[in-house]
C-alpha cells in the first residue's frame, strides 16, 4: 500500500499503458509519426490523452479550446471525445506541425469538429471573447509557450462556463518547479502560475502527477 503517488518503473508504466489506454489507429499513427520529430517531447503522453478524453466526456463538453496544438495528438484525443456536433478551437502558430495533425484528423473522421486558428493564441482567445462573449466553452487545454501561461489562463477562465474545466500541462516541469537552482524564464513562469492557482478563489484545483504535471482548474 502507498499513501503517495507511485514512482513508475518502466515495467509498471508499460502495464499502465496496456491496461488503460485505448488508442484508435489514427491516434497511434499520429503519435508514432510525431515521435520521429526532434521536438517529439512536446507531445503529451498517451495516458494523459486518455485521461483528458475521460474528463471531456464527464463534463458532457460540446465546445472546447486548445492553446498549443503541435502535431495535433491532444486535439485528436479531445475531438474523438466530443459529440458529433461538438467543436474544438485549436490555437497554434505552425502550419507545418499542425499540417501533420490535419491529415490524421481527416483520416479519423473528426476534421469537421476542429476549428484550427493559426496565429498568436493571446490574439485568438481575445477575438473569441470579443466575438462570442464569456462562458461559451466547457473545456480548455493549455500547452503552449510557458511565459504566456498566465495570460492564457485568464482568457480561458473567462471563456469557459461555470462548472467548466481548464487543464494546464507541464505544471511540474520535470521537477524544476521544486528546484531552487532552476530559475530560467519558463520555470519561473510555471512557478508563478502554480502560486496563482493555489490562491485563486474562482476555481477548485487539483495538480495531477500525470505526464509532466497536469493542473485541473474547475471554474466555480
Which structural traits does this protein have?
7-stranded mixed sheet, alpha/beta, 220 residues, 8 helices
- The percent of residues in helical segments reads 40-55%
Mean pLDDT: 96
Q: How many E-type strands? A: 7
What shape does the CA trace take?
globular
Largest sheet descriptor: 7 strands, mixed
Helices and strands: which structural class? alpha/beta
In angstroms, what separates the terminal alpha carbons? 34 Å
* H/E element sequence: HHHEHEHEHEHEHEE
Strand order, sheet with most strands: 3-2-1-4-5-7-6
Binned strand content? 15-25%
Radius of gyration: 17 Å
As residue ranges, the low-confidence spans are none
The total count of helices amounts to: 8
Q: Topology, please?
A:
Layout: H1 10-18, H2 25-35, H3 46-59, E1 63-67, H4 73-81, E2 87-92, H5 95-108, E3 114-118, H6 121-132, E4 137-142, H7 149-159, E5 160-169, H8 185-198, E6 203-208, E7 214-219
Parallel strand pairs: 1-2, 1-4, 2-3, 4-5
Antiparallel strand pairs: 5-7, 6-7
Helix pairs in contact: 2-5, 3-4, 4-5, 6-7
Summarize the structure in words.
The chain has helices at 10-18, 25-35, 46-59, 73-81, 95-108, 121-132, 149-159, 185-198; strands spanning 63-67, 87-92, 114-118, 137-142, 160-169, 203-208, 214-219. The model has no long low-confidence stretch (mean pLDDT 96). The chain is an alpha/beta fold and 220 residues long. Helix 4 (73-81) runs parallel beside helix 5 (95-108) and helix 6 (121-132) packs parallel to helix 7 (149-159). The longest helix has 14 residues, at 46-59. The protein has a 7-stranded mixed sheet, with helices on both faces.
Amino acid at each position: 500500500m502507498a499513501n503517495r503517488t507511485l514512482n513508475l518503473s518502466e515495467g509498471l508504466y508499460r502495464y499502465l499503458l496496456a491496461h488503460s489506454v485505448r488508442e484508435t489507429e489514427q491516434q497511434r499513427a499520429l503519435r508514432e509519426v510525431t515521435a520521429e520529430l526532434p521536438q517529439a517531447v512536446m507531445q503529451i503522453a498517451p495516458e494523459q490523452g486518455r485521461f483528458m478524453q475521460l474528463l471531456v466526456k464527464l463534463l458532457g463538453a460540446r465546445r472546447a479550446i486548445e492553446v498549443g496544438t503541435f502535431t495535433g495528438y491532444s486535439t485528436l484525443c479531445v475531438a474523438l471525445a466530443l459529440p458529433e456536433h461538438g467543436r474544438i478551437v485549436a490555437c497554434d502558430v505552425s502550419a507545418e506541425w499542425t499540417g501533420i495533425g490535419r491529415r490524421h484528423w481527416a483520416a479519423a473522421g473528426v476534421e469537421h469538429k476542429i476549428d484550427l486558428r493559426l496565429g498568436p493564441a493571446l490574439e485568438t482567445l481575445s477575438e473569441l471573447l470579443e466575438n462570442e462573449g464569456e462562458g461559451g466553452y466547457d473545456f480548455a487545454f493549455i500547452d503552449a509557450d510557458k511565459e504566456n501561461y498566465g495570460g492564457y489562463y485568464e482568457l480561458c477562465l473567462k471563456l469557459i462556463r461555470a462548472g467548466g474545466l481548464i487543464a494546464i500541462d507541464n505544471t511540474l516541469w520535470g521537477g524544476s518547479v521544486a528546484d531552487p537552482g532552476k530559475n530560467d524564464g519558463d520555470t519561473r513562469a510555471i512557478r508563478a502560475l502554480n502560486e496563482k492557482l493555489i490562491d485563486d478563489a474562482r476555481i477548485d484545483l487539483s495538480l495531477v502527477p500525470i505526464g509532466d504535471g497536469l493542473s485541473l482548474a474547475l471554474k466555480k
